[in-house]
Amino acid sequence: MRVRWVPALLVDAHAQTPASRTLVFVAPDLESPLAGQHVDVRLTAEDGYTAQRAYSLGSPAGADRIELTVDRMPDGEVSPYLVDMLQVGNLIEVRGPIGQFFVWRPEQTEPVQLIAGGSGIVPLMSMIRTREAVGGTAPMRLLYSVRTPEGRLYADELDALATAGRLEVQYVYTREAPADWEREAGRLTPELLAELTLAPDQDPAVYVCGPTPFVEAVADGLVQAGHRVASIRTERFGPSG
User: Fold this and answer.
1) Domain for residue 9, yes or no?
2) How many domains does the chain have?
3) How far apart are CA 58 and CA 69, in angstroms?
4) Residue 29 CA from chain centroid, whole number
5) pLDDT tens digits, residue range 157-200?
Protein backbone atom coordinates (compact mmCIF):
# COMPACT_ATOMS: atom_id res chain seq x y z
CA MET A 1 0.00 0.00 0.00
CA ARG A 2 1.36 3.40 -0.97
CA VAL A 3 1.83 5.75 1.97
CA ARG A 4 0.34 9.21 1.55
CA TRP A 5 1.10 12.67 2.80
CA VAL A 6 -0.99 13.72 5.81
CA PRO A 7 -1.11 16.93 7.88
CA ALA A 8 0.79 17.12 11.18
CA LEU A 9 0.07 19.88 13.70
CA LEU A 10 2.92 21.05 15.94
CA VAL A 11 1.61 21.05 19.51
CA ASP A 12 4.82 21.29 21.53
CA ALA A 13 8.49 22.00 21.01
CA HIS A 14 11.59 22.40 23.15
CA ALA A 15 15.34 22.65 22.70
CA GLN A 16 17.42 19.53 23.31
CA THR A 17 20.80 21.20 22.71
CA PRO A 18 21.78 24.59 21.26
CA ALA A 19 21.67 23.00 17.80
CA SER A 20 18.72 20.64 18.13
CA ARG A 21 15.02 20.75 18.90
CA THR A 22 12.35 18.22 19.78
CA LEU A 23 9.05 18.66 17.93
CA VAL A 24 5.81 17.01 19.02
CA PHE A 25 3.03 16.64 16.45
CA VAL A 26 -0.51 15.41 16.29
CA ALA A 27 -1.09 13.55 13.02
CA PRO A 28 -4.34 11.58 13.40
CA ASP A 29 -4.25 10.27 9.82
CA LEU A 30 -0.80 8.73 10.21
CA GLU A 31 -0.67 4.98 10.70
CA SER A 32 0.50 3.91 14.16
CA PRO A 33 4.31 3.56 14.04
CA LEU A 34 6.62 0.84 15.32
CA ALA A 35 9.68 1.58 17.45
CA GLY A 36 12.54 2.52 15.13
CA GLN A 37 10.55 3.71 12.12
CA HIS A 38 10.85 7.10 10.46
CA VAL A 39 8.67 9.54 8.53
CA ASP A 40 9.24 11.83 5.59
CA VAL A 41 8.64 15.51 6.29
CA ARG A 42 7.58 17.89 3.50
CA LEU A 43 7.63 21.67 3.62
CA THR A 44 5.92 23.79 0.97
CA ALA A 45 6.80 27.44 0.33
CA GLU A 46 4.29 30.09 -0.70
CA ASP A 47 5.53 29.85 -4.30
CA GLY A 48 4.85 26.10 -4.34
CA TYR A 49 8.45 24.97 -3.95
CA THR A 50 8.71 21.85 -1.80
CA ALA A 51 11.53 20.22 0.13
CA GLN A 52 11.42 16.97 2.03
CA ARG A 53 13.67 15.00 4.36
CA ALA A 54 13.40 11.79 6.39
CA TYR A 55 13.46 11.96 10.19
CA SER A 56 13.38 9.15 12.73
CA LEU A 57 10.61 8.99 15.30
CA GLY A 58 11.65 9.29 18.94
CA SER A 59 8.18 8.64 20.36
CA PRO A 60 7.21 5.18 21.62
CA ALA A 61 5.36 2.79 19.34
CA GLY A 62 1.66 3.51 19.12
CA ALA A 63 1.87 6.92 20.80
CA ASP A 64 -0.95 9.40 20.12
CA ARG A 65 1.63 12.08 19.38
CA ILE A 66 4.70 11.65 17.22
CA GLU A 67 8.02 13.17 18.20
CA LEU A 68 10.95 14.19 16.04
CA THR A 69 14.27 15.51 17.29
CA VAL A 70 16.08 17.49 14.61
CA ASP A 71 19.69 18.68 14.42
CA ARG A 72 20.23 21.96 12.64
CA MET A 73 22.42 21.37 9.57
CA PRO A 74 24.29 24.60 8.69
CA ASP A 75 23.66 24.19 4.95
CA GLY A 76 20.37 22.37 5.35
CA GLU A 77 17.18 23.21 3.51
CA VAL A 78 14.68 21.74 5.99
CA SER A 79 16.36 21.38 9.38
CA PRO A 80 17.04 25.12 10.02
CA TYR A 81 13.35 25.84 9.52
CA LEU A 82 12.27 23.02 11.83
CA VAL A 83 14.76 23.97 14.53
CA ASP A 84 14.53 27.77 14.40
CA MET A 85 11.27 28.83 12.76
CA LEU A 86 8.42 26.32 12.99
CA GLN A 87 5.95 27.49 15.65
CA VAL A 88 3.41 25.66 17.78
CA GLY A 89 0.15 25.70 15.84
CA ASN A 90 1.86 25.40 12.45
CA LEU A 91 1.09 22.55 10.06
CA ILE A 92 3.54 20.50 8.03
CA GLU A 93 3.07 17.32 5.99
CA VAL A 94 4.39 13.89 6.95
CA ARG A 95 4.39 10.52 5.21
CA GLY A 96 4.89 7.12 6.78
CA PRO A 97 5.69 5.42 8.99
CA ILE A 98 8.50 3.91 6.92
CA GLY A 99 10.79 0.95 7.53
CA GLN A 100 10.20 -2.63 8.64
CA PHE A 101 13.78 -3.82 9.20
CA PHE A 102 15.15 -1.38 11.80
CA VAL A 103 12.42 -1.94 14.38
CA TRP A 104 12.19 -3.42 17.87
CA ARG A 105 9.00 -5.14 18.96
CA PRO A 106 7.94 -5.73 22.58
CA GLU A 107 7.50 -9.45 21.97
CA GLN A 108 11.25 -9.80 21.40
CA THR A 109 12.85 -11.40 24.46
CA GLU A 110 16.55 -11.50 23.56
CA PRO A 111 19.01 -8.98 25.06
CA VAL A 112 19.24 -5.72 23.14
CA GLN A 113 22.36 -3.68 22.45
CA LEU A 114 21.73 -0.16 21.17
CA ILE A 115 24.60 1.83 19.66
CA ALA A 116 24.11 5.47 18.66
CA GLY A 117 26.28 8.09 17.04
CA GLY A 118 25.08 11.66 17.58
CA SER A 119 21.44 12.13 16.58
CA GLY A 120 21.32 8.43 15.75
CA ILE A 121 19.98 8.13 19.29
CA VAL A 122 16.50 9.21 18.13
CA PRO A 123 15.09 5.90 16.81
CA LEU A 124 16.84 4.05 19.62
CA MET A 125 15.05 6.33 22.07
CA SER A 126 11.80 5.13 20.54
CA MET A 127 12.84 1.56 21.34
CA ILE A 128 13.82 2.50 24.90
CA ARG A 129 10.55 4.32 25.49
CA THR A 130 8.51 1.51 23.97
CA ARG A 131 10.14 -0.99 26.31
CA GLU A 132 9.34 1.28 29.25
CA ALA A 133 5.74 1.79 28.12
CA VAL A 134 5.04 -1.95 28.01
CA GLY A 135 7.07 -2.80 31.13
CA GLY A 136 9.49 -4.91 29.09
CA THR A 137 12.07 -6.99 30.91
CA ALA A 138 14.41 -7.90 28.05
CA PRO A 139 17.91 -6.66 29.01
CA MET A 140 18.75 -3.46 27.15
CA ARG A 141 22.04 -1.56 27.00
CA LEU A 142 22.90 1.71 25.24
CA LEU A 143 26.30 2.83 23.99
CA TYR A 144 26.10 6.49 22.97
CA SER A 145 28.95 8.15 21.05
CA VAL A 146 28.67 11.93 21.10
CA ARG A 147 31.08 14.81 20.55
CA THR A 148 30.66 16.63 23.87
CA PRO A 149 28.59 16.29 27.07
CA GLU A 150 26.51 19.28 25.97
CA GLY A 151 25.65 17.47 22.73
CA ARG A 152 23.83 14.61 24.40
CA LEU A 153 20.19 14.29 23.36
CA TYR A 154 17.65 13.14 25.97
CA ALA A 155 20.34 13.48 28.66
CA ASP A 156 18.02 13.86 31.66
CA GLU A 157 15.74 11.02 30.58
CA LEU A 158 18.63 8.64 29.96
CA ASP A 159 20.24 9.55 33.27
CA ALA A 160 16.97 8.89 35.09
CA LEU A 161 16.58 5.47 33.47
CA ALA A 162 20.17 4.58 34.30
CA THR A 163 19.75 5.69 37.93
CA ALA A 164 16.59 3.61 38.23
CA GLY A 165 18.43 0.55 36.91
CA ARG A 166 16.15 0.32 33.89
CA LEU A 167 18.83 0.94 31.28
CA GLU A 168 22.58 0.53 31.27
CA VAL A 169 24.10 3.56 29.55
CA GLN A 170 27.69 3.97 28.39
CA TYR A 171 29.06 7.13 26.78
CA VAL A 172 32.00 7.73 24.48
CA TYR A 173 32.94 11.40 23.99
CA THR A 174 34.80 12.00 20.76
CA ARG A 175 35.91 15.63 21.12
CA GLU A 176 35.54 16.74 24.72
CA ALA A 177 34.94 14.56 27.78
CA PRO A 178 33.79 15.70 31.23
CA ALA A 179 36.64 16.73 33.51
CA ASP A 180 36.22 13.70 35.77
CA TRP A 181 35.64 11.18 32.95
CA GLU A 182 37.52 7.89 33.11
CA ARG A 183 38.62 8.03 29.47
CA GLU A 184 40.11 10.68 27.26
CA ALA A 185 38.01 11.99 24.41
CA GLY A 186 38.39 10.00 21.22
CA ARG A 187 36.62 7.89 18.66
CA LEU A 188 34.91 4.62 19.43
CA THR A 189 37.59 2.01 18.78
CA PRO A 190 37.05 -1.73 18.25
CA GLU A 191 38.57 -2.30 21.69
CA LEU A 192 36.13 0.09 23.37
CA LEU A 193 33.28 -1.38 21.38
CA ALA A 194 34.09 -4.84 22.69
CA GLU A 195 34.52 -3.53 26.25
CA LEU A 196 31.30 -1.51 26.46
CA THR A 197 28.77 -3.72 24.65
CA LEU A 198 27.06 -7.02 25.33
CA ALA A 199 29.25 -9.98 24.48
CA PRO A 200 28.59 -12.07 21.36
CA ASP A 201 27.92 -15.17 23.48
CA GLN A 202 24.80 -13.41 24.84
CA ASP A 203 23.52 -13.28 21.24
CA PRO A 204 21.94 -9.83 21.55
CA ALA A 205 19.88 -8.08 18.92
CA VAL A 206 22.06 -5.10 17.97
CA TYR A 207 20.74 -1.82 16.58
CA VAL A 208 23.24 0.74 15.26
CA CYS A 209 22.26 4.22 14.06
CA GLY A 210 24.33 7.25 13.14
CA PRO A 211 26.35 8.82 10.32
CA THR A 212 27.35 6.38 7.59
CA PRO A 213 31.09 6.17 8.48
CA PHE A 214 30.22 5.56 12.15
CA VAL A 215 27.71 2.84 11.35
CA GLU A 216 30.05 1.06 8.95
CA ALA A 217 32.93 1.12 11.44
CA VAL A 218 30.74 -0.16 14.28
CA ALA A 219 29.16 -2.91 12.18
CA ASP A 220 32.62 -4.09 11.05
CA GLY A 221 33.84 -4.07 14.64
CA LEU A 222 30.85 -6.07 15.85
CA VAL A 223 31.41 -8.74 13.20
CA GLN A 224 35.12 -8.90 14.03
CA ALA A 225 34.21 -9.33 17.70
CA GLY A 226 32.09 -12.36 16.85
CA HIS A 227 28.54 -11.05 16.58
CA ARG A 228 26.33 -12.75 14.02
CA VAL A 229 25.74 -10.62 10.94
CA ALA A 230 22.05 -11.51 11.05
CA SER A 231 21.74 -10.05 14.56
CA ILE A 232 23.02 -6.59 13.53
CA ARG A 233 20.54 -4.04 12.19
CA THR A 234 21.74 -0.67 10.96
CA GLU A 235 20.24 2.70 10.06
CA ARG A 236 22.49 5.40 8.67
CA PHE A 237 22.25 8.99 7.54
CA GLY A 238 24.43 11.51 5.79
CA PRO A 239 24.37 14.74 3.77
CA SER A 240 21.21 15.03 1.70
CA GLY A 241 22.97 16.56 -1.30
Assistant:
1) yes
2) 2
3) 7
4) 23
5) 999 999 999 999 999 999 999 988 989 999 999 999 999 999 99
